[in-house]
Amino acid sequence: MDAFYASVEQRDNPSLRGLPVAVGGDADKRGVVAAASYEARTFGVRSALSMAKAVRLCPSLVIVRPDFAKYKAVSQQVFELFRSVTPLVEPLSLDEAYLDVTENAWGERLGMTVARRLKDAIREATGLTASAGVAPNKFLAKIASGWQKPDGLTVIAPERMESFLQGLPVDALWGVGPVTARKLRARGIEKLVDVRTTDLDGLRETVGSLAAWLQQLANGIDDRPVVSEHEAKSSGSENTFARDLTDRDEIRREVEAMACDAAAWLVKRELYARTVTIKVRYHDFTTITRSHSEEPTREEDNIVRRAVMLLDKTEAGARAVRLLGVSVHNLCTELSPVEIDPQPTLPFEMSEGA
Length: 354
What we know:
Blueprint: H1 4-12, E1 21-24, E2 33-36, H2 38-41, H3 51-57, E3 62-64, H4 68-85, E4 89-93, E5 96-99, H5 111-126, E6 132-134, H6 138-145, E7 153-155, H7 161-166, H8 178-186, H9 194-197, H10 200-207, H11 211-218, E8 234-245, H12 248-268, E9 272-282, E10 286-297, H13 300-311, E11 321-332, E12 348-351
Parallel strand pairs: 1-3, 6-7
Antiparallel strand pairs: 1-2, 4-5, 8-11, 9-10, 9-11, 10-12
């Protein structure tokens, strides 16, 4: 959505239209800009900026206190439209999502057509504009969605991927903020494509364990699927560590803690889980999962025991670990015996990004 909070306020209050508007807290009370209209952005006002600085940049700025209940209601309208077209909707925030429209309710063969129809539907339902990026993967779609704001539609067809990547600066990469970008440029890495040919060990000196992931993105590779969590069919947590873990006892403690969190989530919601799954991502980005199913439970000891048992079926420790996760699946509301797969461990291995 384009300048979402500010656009909603301008829609609902015609006197604000055409004016520089910032949604957020008071300038004299350490308020922060939550959203800025495009009129305000011409003065350099951006989200996350202190409201005091925003007023200095734009003395005529109109400050509106946020109404999150209203924004959430509009967001629900938009997401209902998304899910009427495809069940594969992965929310990023109230106003942003990934959609996999390979299969869609309209039977459209082109993602561009789906995006155009959705933009029209959003405008008709809410009176607001949205910008869309259409591309073969999440990384490129995310960049494309901001390419022609507001009310933009940018398509990166597979045959255009390379020419598009060639024109991007290094800070277009995920995880590369202003500080990291300055460090990379100090090493002569100005463009995104420069990351491809940079020695991996040298790149690690600047970006740490992100190095291999950034090289994948620089080559336009991003195999992460769109994951819909519209229905609570599972719960869990995962953690990417600032340094790779090699100590087996430390890895075990991390898994135990996440298993305890999963059990507490089940207790709080009065649910039971049949399946416990762990996720391990090694230092080279190879990712594996291990799962175990049996009768439903929410007992902490049971879930911890099974998570540790699954960990013992991995090479964690022998191979450095960058990410760990524990989750519970196959949820139910009562304790009833179920038929389960006689093969309790269901491994698969793949390479994927962080």
